[in-house]
Amino acid sequence: MEPLIVSSSPHVYSEDTTARIMRDVVLALLPAAAVAVYFFGGRAALIMAISVLSAVMTEAVVQKLMKKPVTVNDWSAAVTGLMLAFNLPPTVPLWLPAVGSAIAIALVKQAFGGLGHNFMNPALAARAILLAAWPVYMTTWADPIRVAMSAAAADAISSATPLAILKGMEGTEAQLPPLWAIILGNTRGCLGETSDVALLLGAVYLLWRRVINWRIPFSFIGTVALLTWILGPQGLFTGNAIYHIFSGGLILGAFYMATDYSSSPVTPKGQIIMGIGCGIITSIIRVYGGYPEGVTYSILLMNVAAPLIDRFTMPRIYGEVRADV
Amino acid sequence: MGLKVFGFKGGVHPFHRKESTQDKAVERMQAPKLVYIPLQQHIGAPCEPLVKPGDHVKLGQKIGQPKGFVGAPVHASVSGVVKEIKQVPHPAMGQGLAVVIENDGKDELDEFIVPKDIESLSAEELKDLILEAGIVGMGGAAFPTHVKLSPPKDKNIDVVILNGAECEPYLTADHRLMVENPRDVVDGLKAIMKVLGVKRGYIAIENNKPDAVCVIANAVKSVPGVEVIQLKTKYPQGAEKQLIYAVTGRQVPSGGLPMDVGVVVNNVGTAAAIARAIKTGMPLIERIVTVTGGGVAQPKNLLVRIGTPFKDVVEACGGLLGQPAKVISGGPMMGIAQYTLDVPVIKGTSGILVLTKQEVEMPEPGPCIRCGKCVEACPMRLMPLFISAYALKGDYDRSEKLHAMDCIECGCCSYICPARRPLVQSIRTAKRVITERRRRTASAK
User: Which one of A1, A2, A4, A68 makes the best mutation probe of the B interface by having the most chain B beta carbons within 10 Å?
Assistant: First the structure.
């Protein structure tokens, strides 16, 4: 008889693995990716491909250089690459996603210890860096191709996203697109954030697979809905909450970015605080800030607060005896 | 019996894998040629042997006497001749001193064995009988039952719970016992309640065993103060603290014992063993063992004499099927992996699990991705990822501050971890170190 394996219990494991979780996230993002290609054309596909490729290659190269095991087959780099692409306007030059993904992986993820150790969402941090470095590229929005073609409008380059219009920013006297167009994704914006239908489809999948739970996304979106309704442009309780929920990057941010494991709290209470915090900051930036959109910065700010939140929201353990009793 | 189902917060849902034995009636296994009866079968005091090589022993004869209060005597599970007393492989301790008896096949009864009646015995007599019969917890830990039934005077016990959850995957020994022998279970409960002077008793069963719930509910109909409780099917529903919470809503204080909240918990198998010891006079010399897993030809529930080597038990189930990868004493969540099939069945052996290569995953730990699944799964509401991280760095003080000592070692965290971190394994190490430190500081004072 061959020697028996002796190890400490448990002797069975759930089917969940890191790779399976990351693969699930990629699967969940596919509908939105397809819609992006439909509305923004082959360029969107190219941006996504370059971004993912750059992320995976950067991870492999960095890990090789640092003499660590190469773990690109855990799909996590692919997720970061795809997430970053989702956060880029469809008009960016093709080197931008390559640079962005390299920053996300090398600087934000690997420099801090790799998977599970990044204190910010790598894709979002990279996006913030790109936005600071190349603001023009990062805020040049294109009308969806189908719209442009049907309207025969020559100027595919236009400047205002629905949120900017909603905010009444300078030079944006344009008409707000109808809500249904926003929900479907037939609107200006980053290539992966526009189609709420596709994103929500993926979100349902992630919730069903228990990759994510309801706490961060629901508290995030709920807070934004509440605050943008209360802090309306024509006084209290005049805001267009529905429009705020479905435009910009809120759905993408709430379900896919704020839920990033390593940069969000692990305690149940902490996750709700994270969601509410993100919601408050997003709403304040959207309503009062200089930018039309605040999802990125809200998540990044709450990311750095996550360890502190964890510390103050430790669950009360079973049978805990308070020292003063 | 209400439809209400009781549970606790957290836990996991592993595959039950009980199908291959849950409908199979318990079979009595023929006593083997040689039995190896360890003189220590649980934490606490080991036994002093009362026999020497060459002695003739009868079935049920006491052959080992515990050296302390936290101990239980051991008895001959066959009649025959003591061959030797030597170190043998032990399913819980690696090695242990055991009395080896050569079975003469006559099952000649010890003359002390006389049937009694629960009603005619006083509480004190019952407790003595339980001690003398060598009854221990049959759920796995094998803690001496008479100790549990001797709470200090200042503890006011008002509830007795029989644990019929059997939440470990694969195991069906308690399930079959409840279905086939509800009378013994209920009589055992009555005896325990009498010893403790308690008026309220519950028999708690997971709701994946509807037949057992039914049978036991019928059996307690005419018993005043006793009720059946249906539990949610999830692991670790049968863990003492989680069970107490599900049934009574009480939380055992951190560092405390069930008796601190007025509860005594016993396994259904323990209750049945008590009832049989009273009714037949026979001490604990056999138990039901679920023999299962992909590596066993005919999975069965067997009534096995204590001291029977695992390999004889597996042989009685048609032998091995292919090459076994892992042999576990107990269930897959908390059971102990064995290095040899030569270990004997002891009082706490609830199952023998023979797993094939396909059933065994060798975890390859990756980095923690901070998914928080272990936090959600922990039935004690600890934060396994942090306790473990500190433990792996050797920072046991921080592990202790994060309540490492409250860990019940159920293994939910390791089971659920997608990165296959050695969570419970490292916390276990931390607990050993912390206990050792506390012991040393206490003795230094």
Answer: A4
